[in-house]
Every structure is written in C-alpha cells, then in structure tokens.
C-alpha cells in the first residue's frame, strides 16, 4: 500500500516537472521570438531559442522585407515568427518573411509620422509617375509629387515626351518622404516634393496675398504657366489668370524665359498662385454702362465649337453666341452660317458685367423671330 502511494506521488511530481519543463515553454505558431544565430547556410539558418529549442529558417521564409537581416553572422540576435512548433527534424519552424514584413511596414509608418527624409531607388516609370523601392518594399512616386526641378514641363503636354523624361530617373536614387502608407492595402506612396516643402514654406513666409512680384516663366502647360520667384520659389499662373480675355493656349500669350509682373492671389503651404490680369484694369468695368440688353452690336467671330461661337466685341471683351442663336434649324451647321475672322451684327440677350458674361444672338435670327 505504501509503495503504491509512493508511486502516485512520484507520478504527480513528474507531471509537475514536465509542466514546468522546456516542453511547456516551446513557442506557439504565430509567436514572435528572439534568438541567436547558430549557423548560416545558403538555404537555411539555425537559431538558438534561449536554450529551449533550436529554430530553423529556410526557403522563402529567409526573405526579409525590413532589410535588417542582410549579412547575418553567428551570434547575431534576430527576431522571427513561429510557423510550426516542431517540424520533421524536431526543430521549431521559423520565418523571417512574416516578421520582416510586419517590421518593414511598422518602420514605414514611423518614417511617415517622423517625416524623415529617405533615399528611394527608382525601378520603373509609367505615365503616372515612378515605381520606387524603399528597403525591400515597392512603392509609387506620382508625377504630382516630384520636386519642382524634376517635374516634367513638356511643351504641348506630349505624353511620350513626359514618359521619356520620367524614364531618365530609372536606376537613380532620389530623396523623398513617406507620403501615404497602408499595410492592409500594401500601399506605399512617397513624395519628393515634400522634401523641399519645409524650406519653401520658410521662404514663402516673407510674401503675402496681394504682393506684386517679378517672376520668370519657367514652364508652360495646358492649364497655365509655371513661374519662378526670388529665392527659387515656384508659383503657378492659371490660364484663367493670364488675361481678361479668353485664352485657349497659354503658349500664345507667354513664352519660357519671359520676365513678367504678377500679383500673388493665393498662398497654401508651399504653393503660390499668381495673376497677371489682376494688375490690369478689368475691361468689363469700362463697358458696364456702355451696353444694355437689346442693343445691336458688331462682333468678330474668334472661335467656333459645338455649342456656339466666341465673339470679340471690343479688345479683351468676348461674348458667347449660343448655337441656338446662330442657326435657324437642326439641318444647318454653325460653320455654314458664320466664319472665323468675319464680323457680324448681333443682339445682346444677356449682360452681366460683374460676372464677365454677355450672350448674343445673330441679328438675322432675332429679326426672323
């Protein structure tokens, strides 16, 4: 009887010992563990998990997106994620890939929060921007986030020339900041423009809305012209701010290298918006008492499109003659009734000088009614 009781007690002690042994302490799948490198081979790395067990990293699991585990040596301390508590060799199966992925995206979020400047390598280019690589993570640098020096100011907006310009960056490293990051979407957006933004913001502080400045035309695009102020600050004159009259092509109004005087009409962070036309008298104010609805006037047709004709009635004063005020029936074509460069008589149907609006109807059409 005593011997039996002794065996039971010994068995209980054995279970306690087993429960407190290293067998119980083995890490579980999904755990993040720390260990020291025991062996570095071409296709596998062995890791000592604090004397509890030996772990192995092999195959695709050797890939580390954080880029921190290159050139590992024996006794280096590393982190890895547990895939399997025990593999066919009795070792803990580990992954650098999963741990590195998590760490890489955590690092990217920290870079964004700290607004740190990093070097990114340009891998490819497309019409939207540059494919970049930061560490082991691929990302995108949109054209809109290029610095003022690298922005493609291509005459006529030729898409192939823009692409050729962007391709010139492939293989190069450029300074950038992490602009947007999402591990869930595996999205990384970087900005070169943000690097120069802080310096530009400081320089811009000496300007205010309303200031009249001298600047140089540095680029022309369909929507306006880029200009350079003192201290290398870049600004934009939108096409609608170049002149009081309608402008379809900025290239016919300004030229690259031309010195102009403009007024600052907007400052937003590192962006400056300017206007040339606001330094000139608004010609519409000069005619507000000169014309009224019902007047018959003469005007020269400047441009035709599907919805009507743009007509100049005075220098810098353009009015619209809607297609319904030019043709008598649907069978007629507007270009068969009026010709570009020719002068015709019109009747004013609508006149709102403070909104720069005047609507015309051909006199022949009005009389026919």
Properties at a glance:
OB fold (Dihydrolipoamide Acetyltransferase, E2P), disordered N terminus, alpha+beta, 369 residues, five-stranded antiparallel sheet, 38% strand, 8 helices, elongated
Overview of the molecule:
This protein is an alpha+beta fold and 369 residues long. The protein folds into four domains: 24-114, OB fold (Dihydrolipoamide Acetyltransferase, E2P); 115-197, Nucleic acid-binding proteins (OB fold (Dihydrolipoamide Acetyltransferase, E2P), Beta Barrel); 206-279, Beta Barrel (OB fold (Dihydrolipoamide Acetyltransferase, E2P)); 283-368, OB fold (Dihydrolipoamide Acetyltransferase, E2P) (Beta Barrel), CATH 2.40.50. It is 21% helix and 38% strand. The chain has eight helices and 20 strands. It has helices spanning 2-20, 22-25, 96-114, 159-167, 193-204, 283-286, 334-337, 363-368; strands at 32-40, 44-48, 54-58, 77-84, 92-95, 117-126, 129-134, 137-142, 173-182, 187-191, 212-221, 224-228, 234-238, 259-268, 271-275, 296-305, 308-314, 317-322, 343-352, 357-362. The protein has a five-stranded mixed β-barrel. Strands 8-7-6-9-10 form a five-stranded antiparallel sheet. Strands 11-12-13-15-14 form a five-stranded mixed β-barrel. The longest helix has 19 residues, at 2-20. Residues 1-9 and 17-24 have low confidence and may be disordered.
